[in-house]
Amino acid sequence: MLLRMYGSMGNMPFQNVVILVITTVLAVMVCMVIHELCHGFAAYALGDPTAKRMGRLTLNPVRHIDPIGGLMLLFVGFGWAKPVQVDPRYFDKPKRDMALVALAGPFSNFILAFLTMGLWVNTYVWALRGGTPGYILSSFLESLIILNLGLGIFNLLPIPPLDGSKVLATFLPDRFYWRWMQVERYGMFILLFLMITGSLSGFLNNFINGLFNLMVGVWT
Q1: Higher model confidence: residue 198 or residue 23?
Q2: Which of these, 24, 73, 158, 214, could form a disulfide with 168 (CB 3.0-4.6 Å)?
Q3: pTM to 2 decimals?
Q4: Does 184 participate in catalysis according to the annotation?
Q5: Domain parsing of the chain, residue ranges
């Protein structure tokens, strides 16, 4: 969906192209910051001060944005941020609490996408008639919805080091749990291979489009 937005740039006035690029970059910052901030707050609420000690409980995007993951999110519609460091030794129930911390990031993206969709749907008519301010608002909201959906869905994939792998690990017997967590060091190579080969694009775009349309239906 995001690629289709970029594909229409050739027919846009230059001013609108600039607006689309700027609003998309801002949307990338917002959804990545919220995602990682919620990981950090969840861990802190469960007793782990690591994120706070490392300065991750902040709205400063420099602390959260991974350059490669940010570019992926910007141009492809799904990507990742700098992972928040978590020390499960602080948790009362490490497996359960790791899963809760992992789910906090994608869950925050889905909530933000849903709320933003409500605002976008209810301001769309005004935006069409609102000239440049209306176009800026509509462009930002639409990008924010798509990118939050992409970030949330992508991070729920059960591939280390994504959040979904930590949720999956919760259901593994203890003798396999720590072995599974060790696979994380190889996960980035797996992800890069899947992205280069295009194996994930169609699957994820279908999910993004499906959720986008479902949210439109809820709000209209």
Answers
A1: 23
A2: 158
A3: 0.88
A4: no
A5: 2-211
